[in-house]
Amino acid sequence: MCTPSQIPYPSVPDVQFTSLSAVLVSNVTTQIPECLYVNHGALDVKGVSYCHVTTHYTHTGKTDNITVDVFLPTDGWNGRMQAAGGGGYTAGGVNFPISYYTMLGAVAEGYSSATTDAGHASLDPGDWVLQSPGNVNTQLLENFGSTSLNELSIIGKAVTESYYGKPPAYSYWTGCSQGGRQGMKLAEKYPTAFDGIAASAPALDFAGIGGAELWPQVIMNEMKQYPKNCEILAITDAFIKHCDGQDGLTDGVVSDPDACQFDPYSLVGNPVNCNDTGTPEVVHISEAAVKVSEATWTGAKTPDGEFLWWGLKRGTRLIDLVTEVGTNPSIATTKCSPDGTCVGSPSELIVQWITLLVKKDPTFDVTTVTVADLQDIFQASMKEYASILNVEPNLDAFREAGGKMMTYHGLADGIIPPDSTRDFFDKVKARDKSVYDYYRVFEAPGLAHCFSGYGGYYPAGIFDALVEWVESGVAPDRLVASTVPQNGTSYEGILCPYPQKPRYNGLGLSVTADNFYCDE
Question: What is the rounded CA–CA span in Å between residue 214 and residue 474?
Answer without folding.
Answer: 42
